[in-house]
């Protein structure tokens, strides 16, 4: 993996022997493994010839990559280029992959037991498809509405602790107090 380290991150790495980086987007230190417990135990640190880049040499407690791979660098650019050349239209997004799967299931004659797949049943029956779309939309709306309500409650509780401004008294159920 690759990360950015400032002076404090480097000093922390030297003292703790755990690979520590500086997260510029949050202006905080970050130790590899603090959430996954896959720490990178640093045995040595090397400077490049210009002394403007460093490498931590260490042994990880588990996978270094969030994907579960030993390293974050496992995809060869040559492999990507050659696979794109082999396939006329590479499915680069989830939607293209989903469309491809739906088309395969549409053409599929059925499973081993002779019944069509759920996808094929949806494609053959407009009423079933519409009811499934309605249900999915309702689930999405319900989830979003629930999240919105939770945000309102959290905001209200925070403001309640800090003292509600006058305009929030009606919302809090404390009219006029």
TrEMBL record:
GO terms for biological process: L-histidine biosynthetic process. GO terms for molecular function: phosphoribosyl-AMP cyclohydrolase activity. Gene3D superfamilies: Phosphoribosyl-AMP cyclohydrolase. Pfam families: PRA-CH (PF01502). This is phosphoribosyl-AMP cyclohydrolase. Pathway: Amino-acid biosynthesis; L-histidine biosynthesis; L-histidine from 5-phospho-alpha-D-ribose 1-diphosphate: step 3/9. Its EC number is 3.5.4.19. It catalyses: 1-(5-phospho-beta-D-ribosyl)-5'-AMP + H2O = 1-(5-phospho-beta-D-ribosyl)-5-[(5-phospho-beta-D-ribosylamino)methylideneamino]imidazole-4-carboxamide. Keywords: Amino-acid biosynthesis, Histidine biosynthesis, Hydrolase. It comes from the Eukaryota. Residues 1-74 form the Phosphoribosyl-AMP cyclohydrolase domain. It is an enzyme of class 3 (hydrolase).
């Amino acid at each position: 993996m690759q990360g950015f380290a400032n002076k404090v991150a480097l000093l922390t790495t030297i003292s703790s022997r755990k690979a520590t980086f500086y997260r510029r987007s949050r202006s905080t230190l970050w130790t590899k493994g603090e959430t996954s417990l896959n720490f990178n135990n640093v045995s040595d640190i090397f400077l490049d010839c210009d002394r403007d880049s460093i490498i931590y040499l260490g042994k990880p407690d588990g996978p270094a990559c969030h994907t579960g791979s030993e390293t974050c660098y496992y995809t060869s650019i040559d492999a990507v280029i050659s696979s794109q050349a082999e396939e006329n239209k590479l499915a680069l997004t989830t939607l293209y992959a989903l469309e491809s799967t739906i088309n395969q299931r549409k053409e599929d004659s059925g499973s081993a037991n002779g019944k069509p797949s759920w996808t094929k049943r949806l494609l053959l029956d407009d009423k079933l498809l519409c009811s499934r779309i309605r249900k999915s939309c309702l689930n999405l709306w319900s989830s979003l509405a629930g999240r919105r309500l939770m945000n309102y409650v959290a905001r209200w509780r925070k403001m309640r602790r800090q003292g509600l401004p006058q305009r929030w008294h009606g919302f809090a159920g404390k009219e006029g107090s």
